[in-house]
Design brief:
With 191 residues, the chain is α+β, with helices and mostly antiparallel strands. Helices cover 23% and strands 35% of the residues. The strands form two sheets. The chain has a seven-stranded mixed β-sheet with strand order 1-2-3-4-5-9-6, sandwiched between helices. A hairpin with a 2-residue loop joins strand 3 and strand 4. The N and C termini lie far apart (38 Å). This is N-acetyltransferase domain-containing protein. Pfam families: Acetyltransf_9. It comes from Streptomyces amritsarensis. InterPro entries: Acyl_CoA_acyltransferase (IPR016181), GNAT_dom (IPR000182).
Length: 191
């Protein structure tokens, strides 16, 4: 009898080798020429959804960083490298994994918000998992000396968020229609 699909989480450095190879293969298929892995300074955590045979059906990375905005530093987490095995797309695996990521972040007392960008046509996918768009918000990634913003020419990005603070409406307002200094570095230029 086959097992039910399940979500597993690991610090990126602790992903078992056989699963790490599958994740690298999925990422190479989705983004040819990309380099697997994330900047260790962002404390990357890998979430995997395994299919009923124990193979990686979908994967994503959670990245963590403080973001100074509106007179305080928010403890932010971002979704990155969200990918589903091409043969399984459209079957709900990716949505289930993204919803699990949101639930994990909501339960983490060290996280104030989830914040990330996606291609605009994918915004409804993330909304279905509990994230909401931030109208007019621009994430400024890269570094202060070499920035990469979500409103750069040729980009069509939506900024998505979920707030887990005691004052989510006020914090959402602080992040709406502003340029957010994400600056995750030169490895994960935007998450």
């Amino acid at each position: 009898m086959s097992a039910e699909p399940r979500v597993l989480g690991f610090a990126e450095a602790d992903v078992p080798a056989a699963l790490a190879v599958q994740v690298a293969d999925l990422e190479a298929e989705a983004w040819p020429g990309s380099t697997p892995g994330h900047d260790p300074a962002l404390a990357p955590r890998t979430l995997l959804l395994l299919d009923d045979e124990g193979a990686v059906a979908a994967a994503l990375a959670l990245l963590y960083k403080g973001i100074p905005l509106a007179g305080r530093t928010y403890r932010a987490a971002g979704l990155s490298s969200v990918v589903t095995r091409s043969a399984l797309r459209g079957q709900g695996f990716g949505g289930r994994l993204v919803a699990a990521a949101r639930a994990e972040l909501a339960a983490d007392p060290a996280v104030d918000l989830a914040l990330f960008s996606c291609d605009r046509p994918l915004a409804p996918f993330y909304e279905a998992a509990g994230f909401a768009p931030l109208p007019g918000t621009v994430l400024v990634g890269g570094t202060p000396g070499d920035p990469l913003a979500t409103d750069a020419p040729g980009f069509d990005k939506a900024v998505m968020a979920a707030f887990f603070t005691e004052t989510p409406a006020a914090d959402r307002a602080a992040f709406t229609a502003v340029r957010v200094p994400l600056h995750p570095g030169s490895v994960d230029r935007l998450w």
